What we know:
Blueprint: E1 4-7, H1 14-25, E2 28-31, H2 32-40, H3 44-51, H4 53-67, E3 74-77, H5 86-95, E4 97-102, H6 105-112, H7 126-144, E5 147-150, H8 156-165
Parallel strand pairs: 1-3, 1-4, 2-3, 4-5
This protein binds shikimate-3-phosphate.
Amino acid sequence: MNNIVLIGYMGSGKSTVGRDLQRKTGMILLDSDQEIERLHNCKISQIFETRGEGAFRQMETDYLKELCQYPDPLILSTGGGMVLKEENVMLMKKIGKVIYLKAEVDTLYRRLSNDTTRPLLQNGNRRQIIAEMVAKREPYYLRAADRILQTDGKTLEEVVNEIVNYQWTES
Ligand code: S3P
């Protein structure tokens, strides 16, 4: 199976789908947020607070560059803003097939309504922030994606099976 890169908005299920995909395929799973926290020994929220979003975005790019050297079959679950830099999109495409886990604003809001870990959601009307950010980011996700996987109303198993059954040679 090809390396898989999961992209999508916060709460779109990248980490959950990544974990299940790992169980099914035995491929290595890496989560860019977790790896950045580990490498910098600092929570994402602290990185945003002390060094700012720009520094975090640079850490994301640096991490992708390192991953391009990674030898084993892998699933990469990315942070929701990974697609915002053109350089990141090129790097992700180099790493593997990019799958956009797409979800409606209502679904995302439901999953994120109690979140305390994501710095970009902590101030203001959360539903509105999500709706505006999704609208702004949608073109970035679409441009980066090799496949768009609509997840609303599907079980985790259905989503993961779709990914496992993708015929990449046809695309
Ligand atoms: C972000 C998404 C987060 C994390 C950071 C910024 C974003 O990752 O990288 O809080 O800009 O959308 P998840 O998508 O895994 O929540």
